[in-house]
Amino acid sequence: MAFKIFQRGGSAPADSRPAAPAAPGAGCLLCGEPQGGAGAGPASCALCGRSGPVAERCRSGHAVCAACLGGPAREVVERTCAASVERDPVAIAERLTRHAVLRLLPEDHDLLVPAALAAAWSNVRGEGGLRAVRVREAAGRMPPPGRPRHDGEGAASGAGAFVSLVAGWSGRADPALAEQAAARASALIGRGDDALCPSRNALVAILATARLAREKLGTEMPAHGVACERAGKNPTCIGSACPFNRT
User: Fold this and answer.
1) Is residue 157 part of a domain?
2) Helical residues (DSSP H) of the chain, grouped into ranges
3) pLDDT digit string (tens) for 167-200?
């Protein structure tokens, strides 16, 4: 199983698609507690960190602004990753996979790969001041919405895009390493039925790239596999064959 391998040890065109409404009763994106309405007064958004009116607030007090609750997927991913101080790229991405705005379109999940990795990389290296710029740059390397792609192809491309950027940030340009990152992610994602779940593809690509970053770039991001909260709910779920299915 792929999971066992990973145990511890420019700007793109705007997304013109209408934003998906937030799913009622989906629970807080941070803690899973039920949403309790907007509540009184402004607050800092738990996703992007900006202060202002609250669109939703959970019972534990986590507030989310309107832009992060129901904006276009690309904007939500960029805003959240740019503000995250999390060091685990899987944790960043997994939190966003719960968001209704990402739907089940591969292109929305593929964006998580370079964006979450760019945020975690910056945090691990103590370069949080560069995080937002790097997240935007990483997201900008991904194809615009609507471009046809094969299952798993976009997530693997996101891995290659991130490694290509890291090489530039580190002054170690190495196209072959970026190609290796994409090929490794693609091999682990698989093809056919194995690659139909975009959430799985994104998380596998992130885990593969975090390992490569440790081996080849000397930076360890504490990326850990997670238990999927949506096992069996996605019609393309492959059940026990998925490394994130713990049911």
Assistant:
1) yes
2) 2-5, 66-70, 73-83, 89-97, 106-110, 112-124, 131-140, 153-169, 175-189, 198-217
3) 888 777 678 999 999 999 999 988 656 667 888 8
Question: Phi and psi dihedrals of 65, rounded to 5?
Answer: -80, 165
Query: Which residues face 51 on adjacent strands?
Result: 44
List residues bridging with 58 in a β-sheet.
35
Q: Could you tell me if 231 and 242 are in contact, meaning their C-beta atoms sit under 8 angstroms apart?
A: yes
Nearest to 86 by CA among 50, 46, 32, 57: 46
pLDDT, tens digit, 9 for 90 and up, residues 105-143: 678 889 999 999 999 999 999 999 999 999 999 999 887
Q: Are 195 and 151 in contact (CB under 8 A)?
A: yes
Q: Answer for the pair 209, 179: CB distance below 8 angstroms, yes or no.
A: no
Residue matched to tokens 């904007």: 75
Q: Angle CA(217)–CA(218)–CA(221) in degrees, nearest 5? A: 95
Q: Which of 70, 92, 119 is the last residue in one of the domains?
A: 70
Alpha-carbon distance values, 178 to 2, 160, 181, 228 (Å): 20, 5, 5, 28
* The pLDDT of residue 86: 94
pTM comes to 0.81
Given a cut of 50, whether residue 6 has pLDDT beyond it is no
* Domain region containing 59: 36-70
Digit-coded pLDDT (tens) for 33-75 = 777 666 667 888 888 888 888 888 888 888 888 888 888 889 9
The encoded tokens of residue 142 equal: 């991904």
Same-domain status, 63 and 145: no
